Predict the structure of DUF4822 domain-containing protein.
Amino acid sequence: MKIKSLIAITLFSASFSLFAAESNTGTIEVQSSIQAPQKALNDYEKIMTEKVWITTEAVNEKGNKVPADNEQVSNYFGLAEYYPDGTFIMFTPEGKQKMQGDWSISEDGKTRTLVAKDKEGKTLFTRDVENITVKDTEYTYRIYPNADDKNTYFDIIHHIKK
């Protein structure tokens, strides 16, 4: 009788241990498939995150300020937030959301890439800009109205919103 009880207890313990191991493994697999690993941010990307950037001015190639309502620069004015997970969101100066998607800055800090996406995550367009300044309190990039003419450009200047 004692042997039968020991066998039953042993089988029950083994079954329970096996079930627990399978359950834990299943949980780990599900969690790892949900939590995709984040890429490490480079030094330039670290500067951009955890802040709200506001466009403060646009300046042409001659150093002259260009009004925010100028049709060549007006779309670049607003607010932007860049998140450590590689996503971003942008708003108009009035606070209306205008763009969202993925972002990155090249390792050398010279290029910022935006991949704008719709609400379903479908890519709308990709835009690369030449970075001029990437500092803790200022971010400036250059746009060219005509990609074939590097003599005519606008520097879009951003500071941290206070």
Remarks:
- Residues 1-36 have pLDDT under 50 and may be disordered.
